[in-house]
Description:
It is a single chain. By secondary structure, the chain is of the alpha+beta class. It has one domain: Class I glutamine amidotransferase (GATase) domain (Rossmann fold), CATH 3.40.50. The chain has four helices and eight strands. β7 (about 120-125) and β8 (about 130-135) form a beta hairpin. The mean pLDDT is about 95.
Amino acid sequence: MLRDALSRFHERGGLVLGICNGFQVLVRAGLLPGEGSATLTFNDSGHFESRWVRMKPTPGRSPFLTDDAPIELPVAHGEGKFVATDLAALEASGQVVLRYVDGDDRPTREYPANPNGSLGAVAGLCDATGRVFGLMPHPERHIDPLHHPRWTRLGPKKEGDGLRIFRNAVTACR
């Protein structure tokens, strides 16, 4: 039922965003990346992870991500490890649009920079149109720069990194 409603909305040109459990729903419903070809499973650490992570977007496919400036957002999940039967195909099609990165902004599977052990360092994925976007980190938890735990050390910022994702979606709908 939910899948049908989301599919109809998407077919009319709507943007669909799945955050954390919403990402899991989009994958299990077959809207990302395709029915049965991927899942989100238990973190490699074996426990719930709640921390801030750094990610690198790949712009071009999804209107939610329009630049490649690193994004820092919090994660809060126990089942966020992305696995796929054909990750290479997703990468080749440009559907892997957000990756966990290390301190040098290189994609990593190393803990704790990759809090769940996701294959290919996948933190976010879009469908072939780019209009369905799912990610494990929480952009809604970093709207204001004061939401970041190191806000005093990061220097002045006019908005939190999460707001960029929402602002880009609104701009795409105009």
